[in-house]
Amino acid sequence: MDFSNILAIITTEINRNKVSGGVPIFITESIKEMEEVSSLLARLTLGMVHDLGNGIKVIIRH
């Protein structure tokens, strides 16, 4: 996978210590806010939301 295709990472405050790296990371206060932010970012960047299943979502452009 080409990591330049990863546009953003979105997670909640609880999972903050699980993420790091060279892409924008958005920390939200709730799961509902995480859903809203990830959906909006995907539309703005023309990317797709992928749920990693551990409280972390990734926006990727295919």
What does this structure look like?
- By secondary structure, the chain is of the alpha+beta class.
- The chain has one domain (3-60).
- Helices cover 24% and strands 32% of the residues.
- The protein contains one helix and four strands.
- It has one helix at residues 31-45; strands spanning 6-12, 25-28, 48-51, 56-60.
- It has a four-stranded mixed β-sheet, covered by helices on one side.
- A hairpin with a 4-residue loop joins strand 3 (48-51) and strand 4.
- The chain starts with 5 loop residues before the first strand and ends with a strand.
- The mean pLDDT is 92.
Key descriptive features of the protein:
62 residues; alpha+beta; 4-stranded mixed β-sheet; 24% helix; globular
Question: Which structural class best describes the helix and strand composition?
Answer: alpha+beta
Major β-sheet strand ordering: 2-1-4-3
Q: For the CA atoms, what is the radius of gyration? A: 11 Å
The portion of residues forming beta strands comes to 25-35%
**Average of pLDDT:** 92
Q: How many helices?
A: 1
Shape: globular
Number of distinct beta strands:
4
Give the low-confidence spans: none
Helix fraction, binned, reads 10-25%
Topology pattern, helix = H, strand = E:
EEHEE
Please report the distance between the alpha carbons of the first and last residues. 10 Å
Please indicate the count of domains.
Answer: 1
